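User: I'm writing a tutorial on reading structure tokens. Could you give me a worked example: one chain, its sequence, then its tokens, then a sentence or two explaining what the tokens reveal?
Assistant: Sure. Here is the example chain.
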Amino acid sequence: MSRPDAAAPVESVTTGPAAVDRAAAERDEPGLIDRARADGRTRVIVVHGALAVRDESDDPRIRSFAPDEVPAGAEWGFVGRAADGAAVLVAAFPADAPAPLESAGGWAGPREIGAALDPASADSLVVAVSLGRWLTGHRFCPSCGGDAVLRQAGWSRRCDRCGREHFPRNDPAVIVAITDAARERILLGANVNWRGQMHSCFAGFVEAGESLETSIHREMLEEAGVRVTDLRYVRSQAWPFPHSLMLGFEATAVDPDEARPDGTEIIHLQWYTRAEIGEALAGRGELGLPGEASIARRLIREWFES
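And here are its predicted structure tokens:
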């Protein structure tokens, strides 16, 4: 089974309400996008594929624009409202089109800058990228091929041929920190795509008809060869590459000696002690861990600090 890109998801707001009010009740209001574009207070996040314009300052920030600064040709969506009540919009351009704006600060996305942003900015960026990729990538009905017309301020489409409604999708994926019974060791694996340079938690998409628990038991046995018990939910994280929702758990290996890499996706795995993980978290030693932005690193760190 293909593995979600769990190496570097953004650590946005993972517990509690969103940092930006989605204001979902407003989405059905006729003319919402047009009114917001005419309002000088409105802030626009310009998205080119999975990237947004980075501010030119030394501080890691995503630049926002006034609506009249955005070039023609964008697909528009309503992200929500900032703390001061101003509308936040996304203006999305497809990744295969030329960059819509020149940016002295460059372009950056959740992978590149997410961990350095404040919670509100990180949350807005993840929503803008997620919604923007859907806006530019799903213009036609997957059922009949007809034009899928935007509705609900960018949060749904309706096919003008067959009438079917379509919404931005989230594919659930589980990511699991496996420990021994004493919680003194953690099992990490190296994916073939990482060429052994990084070890992380084990992850996989939830298949049709599966519960999260069933998916965890199947994936951990497939990838790491271990049976697990005592599943404990820890946290979740939106990851828009392409449209995943990472659901983080901790679980206990029934028999640590059963651990074996599948040889296809996981080429190496090993049990690590707290001392070894502590060295890696401090940037010392040869063990490479996922980046600071990732839910995988949060799961590892939370086990280490518990």
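What the tokens reveal: The two ends are 32 Å apart (CA to CA). The chain has six helices and 14 strands.
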